[in-house]
Amino acid sequence: MLKPITRRQKEVLDFVKGFISGNGYSPTLEEMCDALGISAVSTAHQHVCALINKGHLKKEENLARAIEINEPTIQLNENLVELPLLGFIAAGEPIEAIEVPETVFVPKELTNPGSKQYALRVRGNSMQEANIYDGDTVIIREQPIVENGEIGVAIVNGNEATLKRIYQDKNGVRLQPANKSHKPIFVREIEIRGKVTGVLRSRIDPLPKPLQLPLFVFPQKSEQLLQIHNRRFLGSKTKLLGFIGDIVVDKCRGYQTFCDIFAGTGVVGHYFNRPDVKIISNDILSSSYASLQCWLNTKTYNKEKVASFIEHLNNLKTKKENYVSKHFGNTYFTKENAHKIGAIREEIEALPTSPEEKYILLTSLLYAIDKVANTVGHYEAYRKKLDTIQEIRMLVPDINAANNINNEIYQKDSNQLIREIRSDVLYIDPPYNSRQYGDSYHLLENIVTWDKPEVEGVAKKMKNRQHLKSKYCLRSAAATFTDLIRNARTKHILLSYNNTGEKKNERSNARISDKQIVDILKERGPVEIFERDYKGFTTGKSDTNGHTERVFYCKVIR
Fold first, then answer.
1. Does 126 participate in catalysis according to the annotation?
2. Of 32, 76, 278, 548, which is most buried with the most CB atoms under 10 A?
3. What radius of gyration do the chain's Cα atoms show?
4. pTM above threshold 0.85
C-alpha cells in the first residue's frame, strides 16, 4: 500500500507525472530544481528517494532518466481520494494521541484541494447522537480553530485527544458530548487540531434495500445559525483557508497580531481569530465594513434582543412601493422580495439598536439578500430569467464574541492605514484585475448606507461611485502595491494573487505581474511562492484551465 507523503513530496510527484506524460521520459534532478524552486540537487534527490521508499516512484539504478511512476496493482476508483489515517480519537474519555501508518479512501467531494485533511478512527460512543459511533472513521480538516458548537479534535492535558462539540468563552472551554449518558468536560485551554467534515460508517443498520458503500454522514449543528462563510463573494478565500493556514503555521510562528488589510467579508481574519491574537481588519466598502463589525467587533451586544429583532423583521409583510422595489424589483429580485427588503431596511433604521446591533442586523440582511438575488454572485448584471422565487429570510449570526477581545476594525484606504498600524503578520488580498468591487456590490452598498442615491443604466448602479474605486484595479496598481509594501511595519507578508488563467476578456487580466510582485517583495526580504489549483469565478469568457491560487510569502528583514 502506498504510504502518505508530505505536501512538498506531492509537488515533486505531480511534477514527475506531468513531465513524463508530456515528454515520454522522466526529468533530471536539475530540471526538478528549476521547475519547483528547489535550491539544491541533493534536496531533490532526497524527495525522490522518499517517494521511492513510500512506493510512489521506482527507479532503475545506474540509468539516466530512469524514474517511473509506480502505479498501484489495483485500479482505484477515480472518485476516491486517499487520506492518511493518523490513529485513534476518543469519543468518550480522552485517550493518548497515537499515530499509525495507514491510509483510507474517501469520496473526492469530501475533500478540498486547498485544505490539509486526514482521518481518525473513533473509540467510544459519546458522539452517537451526532451519528458518530465506535469504530467509525471521521474525516478531519486541519485547522487551529472551530466555531462554537462545531465538532472538532481537541488535545487536552498535553497529549490526550478527544472528539467533542467545542464551546469556548472567557471562562474556559466546554467539550460537549452528543450522548445524554456522558457528562461535558471542562478545561481551561485546549489545542484544536481540526474540524470534522464527514464520517465513514463502520456499521450499517439493516435497510430494506441494498446500500452502496461507503456510507457517509455529515454532522451538523443542531441550531440554524448564520455562519461567516455563508455568502457568495468575489475572490473569497473560504475554500483556501486551510492552504493559507498551513503557510502561517509553518512560517509565522509566535504571531500575536494578524492584519487582514483587504478583508472583504472577513473570512480570513475570522479563521485566525482567537483570544490571544489581535485581528486588524480593513475594507473600504461599507457592506464589507458592516460584515467585519458583525463578526469581529470587540463590543458586547444583547443576543436575545438581536434574535427578537430578526424574528420581527422576518415577519414584516408589505406591498408598499419603496426605494428597493422601485429600482431593483423584477430585475435583481422578485417584486415581493424587493418590497420586503426595502421594508426591512427602513425598519432597521427605526429599531432601538446600538451601533453593534445595527451592524449585525445589516449583515444578516446582506447575507439573506445573497440567497434570493437573481444574479451569479455579484451585481454587475442580473439574469434575464427571474427564477429565484424563495422568500427572503434573515438568520441570527453565529458570533464567537469570546475571540474578539483584542480586535481592531477600519474602513480606510489600505495605503493610508498601513502607515498607522503594526502587525506580526500582514495578509494582503487586493483586487487582481480592473473589475472594481464597488461596481460589483453597488446594490449592497446602497442597502448599508441607505443614502438612496440616483441610479443609472441597465445594472441600476449609483451614479457617483468614484469614492469606491480602488487604485489596485488601475494600470498604476504596481506603483500602489510598492508603496504599501515599503511602508508595511510587519514581520511577515503574505500576498494572495492568482494567475487568472488564460483570459479572453482584458478586464480580467492581472494588474501586477509575477515579476513585479517578486521584485517588490524582495526589497523587504526573501520570497517564497506557494501554489494550489483553484477554480475561481468566471462569467464564461475566461478559460480557467490551469487556474491556480498563489500565496507569495516574504519574511521581512529590512
1. yes
2. 32
3. 25
4. no
